[in-house]
Amino acid sequence: MPAAPTRVPQQERSRATQARLLEATVDCLVEHGWSGTTTTVVAARAGVSRGAQLHHYPTKAALVTAAVTHLTERRAAELRSEAAALPAGPRRLDRVVDLLAAAFTGPLFVAALELWVAARTDAELRDALVPLEARVGREMHRLTVELLGVDERRPGVREAVQATLDLLRGFGVANLLSDDSTRRTALLHTWKRQLAILLTPDDGPTTAGSARPH
Contact, 80 vs 43, CB < 8 A? Predict the structure, then answer.
């Protein structure tokens, strides 16, 4: 007799359905924008029924914020993994900043930007997005401190880290409109030099491995 088919546990099927919905949501935001990302379109792209989609995420706001949360956590894990392979030394700060810059140019950033713009006039989305963005901002700041290996208790370090993230976010927005990579690369190079100075303790090089330029 043929072996009976293996039954996939309900919890595992549920997680798989959620993952497909979240991935499809980000893809739709990138390709179609906020207005074109309907729950019906997402369900069809994910290959799940409309009922299953509503069961997991009853509103569009719940769906898109869950998608951004999911991919933000995944991207943070990827950044840690990529940074773990970087050697210590004078080039580490440059490489870490480059990794962070890439995070502000990928599909996740494009999807998040669609939500920021839409939330300006959508009260339900704004109410869901504001606390999420606050948490994501704190986690990205904490991750940057961790990757650079700096001590926020030192005066000016926290501000230097936040200025770096704000700068990279601005570059990411500008990159959506035009490819001015030559100018932005030059600006980023200049900021890296300033950042090395700001993060270097007076008594020696930072743990990020960046010596104070002479």
Answer: no
- Percentage of the residues of the chain whose pLDDT score is greater than 90: 40
Q: In this predicted structure, which of 90-94, 112-116, 207-211 has the lowest mean pLDDT? A: 207-211
Q: Which residues contact 89 (CB under 8 A, 6 or more apart)?
A: 209
Q: Give the DSSP H/E element, type plus range, for residue 156.
A: none
Choose the weakest-confidence range: 7-16, 106-115, 145-154, 169-178: 7-16
Rounded CA-CA distance 212/146 in Å is 20
The total number of residues written for the chain in this structure:
214
- The answer to whether 96 and 147 are in contact (CB under 8 A) is yes
Rounded Cα gap, residues 155 and 177, in angstroms = 36
CA distances from 47 to 14, 17, 24 (A): 13, 9, 9
CA 27, CA 71: separation in Å to the nearest integer? 11
